[in-house]
Amino acid sequence: MRRLRNVKIVATLGPSSDDYDTIHALFLAGADVFRLNMSHGSHEEIRARHAIIRRIEQETDRPIAILADLQGPKLRVGTFAKGEERLVEGQPFRLDMDETPGDSRRVNLPHPEIFAALKPGAHLLVNDGKIRLLVRDCGADFADCEVLVGGMISNRKGVNVPDVVLPLAALSEKDRRDLEFVCELGVDWLALSFVQRREDVEEARKLAAGRAFLLAKIEKPSAVDSFDEILKVSDGIMVARGDLGVELPVQNVPPIQKRLVRACRAAAKPVIVATQMLESMIESPMPTRAEVSDVAAAIYEGADAVMLSAESAAGLFPIEAVTTMDNVAREVESDPTYREIIEASRAGRKETIADAIVSAAREIAETTDIKAICCYSESGTTALLTARERPQVPIVALTSRVRTARRLALSWGMHCVMVDAVERFKMAVVNAVRAVCADDFAEPADRIVVTAGIPFNQPGSTNILRVAPCEERLIFNTDPE
What we know:
The protein is built from 18 helices and 21 strands. It is of the alpha/beta class. Helix 1 (about 20-30) runs parallel beside helix 12 (about 320-335), helix 5 packs parallel to helix 7 and helix 10 crosses helix 12.
């Protein structure tokens, strides 16, 4: 099950991908991570999808990461007496706490926390930004606005507030219930929606209690402003361009995406680029040229993963969407320009022994005839540092912990192999040789680089590197000591 690319593919499951045959086909087509969207589907449906993924993992003997994406607080207007109304540019429109069905002059907004944070001059965006309102006057239970961009507004449309940090917890009561459910179920990653500050991530970490790794979704301007602090306390990042493109001018999103991807790579933390990557494939078996270029741009930037949302969850062509993304990735990574960009953007800092070891491993592999870099890593730290280097040769991560293997399935270039725990470096080398030969990364006449931390089972202790020959006695001898 060796992938012929380094970037990983995240596929969201849903009504179009809800059975064993489809999910198995998605995996064979190239999905490395499956996303369970907690905004849709009951706990029973989520449990069933989780069981199918774990069955496929067992059958294929390849670790698969499962990402549970929490919904986050949803801000919505109330209802209208006629179901919908048309707002005209320049007209006044009021949002208030009155639960009476709305009309063309006003509607209920049942979120006192929004009124508490609003100030005159703030903007409100309704229905994914299709309607834009400017706050002229406001109080504890109302906001008098001017319509800047009009259109049809209907029942319970979403509201975005881009200009202020709202006094809202990133985790709603539903999120807390969902978090506990998926952690007990055994997911590997939690994606946190509506993150505004580092405290949002820290709160989720306490609730997760080490049962899952945390991915902060960057979809608010306040999260972009606080990104460095959010990155410090997160295990990974998702650049969620949907809401980000609503709350910010669309031309701001590409440079933000590029900056966030580079920051994550420098920090050795995985980053997913998500939302509307192959949107047209929800209804068409072929993507647009612009969509293909968008996916390619994220890969050229060095993202760890690219994500499909509705394309694989609710679209008509989920398997074709994954296949397309796989084909684009393989083509981009075979382009000499790709290597030039990746190497030009490589972080140069070497602050620790581990940094120096993985950097040396890459340089040795790229200047001699080395077939793979094998990282013996119980916590995943060594492997993540190696992925940060973006080497030209494959990365094989060996671990005795299934939790670590599944975590690393999200990271760039990582081929994860489960091995028995070892106490001596010699056995780590033996396991590495057997793994690379079994999965066709190398043959007995070849050589590999092996890195590890001695003593074993101490996270962040990477301190040893060896160039090892793939000798037949190491592959077949059951007692290499």
